[in-house]
Each structure stands twice: as structure tokens, then as C-alpha cells.
Amino acid sequence: MTPVHKELLRELQDYAHTAATVESVMERMAKRLHEEMTRYNWTGFYLLDPADAGYLVVGPFAGSFTPKTRIPLNTGLCGAAATSGKVVVVQEVSRDPRYLAGSTLVKSEIVVPIYGNQKLAAELDINSYFAETFNRTERQFVEACAKVIANYLAKG
Predict the structure, then answer these.
(1) What pLDDT score does 64 carry?
(2) What is the mean pLDDT of residues 124-153?
(3) Nearest 5°: phi and psi at 84?
(4) Domain count of the chain?
(5) Model-level pTM?
């Protein structure tokens, strides 16, 4: 990770230690990632819908477009990450038929599943208006950010 990644990750980890709710950690994380990482044009969370476990619903986010508010688990990159339990990285979304357009400007996306009590609880989803944004270093950073939320959920 770069020094910028390390500094921002430390800030988010420190905040998570004293935050009152996981929602406040998600809000802070979405805002700070969007502010500090210039290629992160939309940063947010999708949560497993408590009323219908077959759907994800939008949670805290920051960015330049309004996201899809509800996504079936079998649809899109978010659905793919949720059902597979694996990180989904797409360097050019126009080449992936699973992509659900939140904005026509999006070129690349990463979705990291987040588990609490060994069950899917949320996903960290980041969209970029630049192709090839999520290289190995960026992926490691985004996964480390998602782990901050997972760790918060684990302390429960």
C-alpha cells in the first residue's frame, strides 16, 4: 500500500475503535474514500436487506450519482460478489455483461463482500470513471477498508 493508503486506513481504523454504530463507520468511510481517493468516484455500501435476504439495499454512500437502491442477489457485480463470497474486480465494465449501470461514466468497479457472524452483512462497492483503476495495490487497500467494517461487526 502507498503512504496515502496507509494514512487513510489508519484514520478509518482509529475512528472505528470509538464509533457508536457500524453505520457511522460506513458513513465516514464512504465519505473519506470519496474525498481522498481521486479515482473513487462513487464509494458506498450495500447491505443485505433485513426484510428480504434475496436483495441488497443501498447503505451509506458518497459520490457523484444516485445508485441503484435495491439489487437482487442474482444480479449485477454486487450480486455476483454476494453470491460467490468473493471480491469482484472489473477493470472495464463495458466488457462485463453482469454490470448494472449506475452511471454511464463508470469504467471500473470493485465489490468486496463483508461478513459478520460468518454471514454476508454488507458489501463495499467502489466505482471509478477510469478504466483499470483497481490494480493489486488498490484491491489490497479496498479489502483492508472492508476488513475495518468486518472487524467492527465481529466485536459486536
Answers:
(1) 83
(2) 97
(3) -90, -25
(4) 1
(5) 0.95
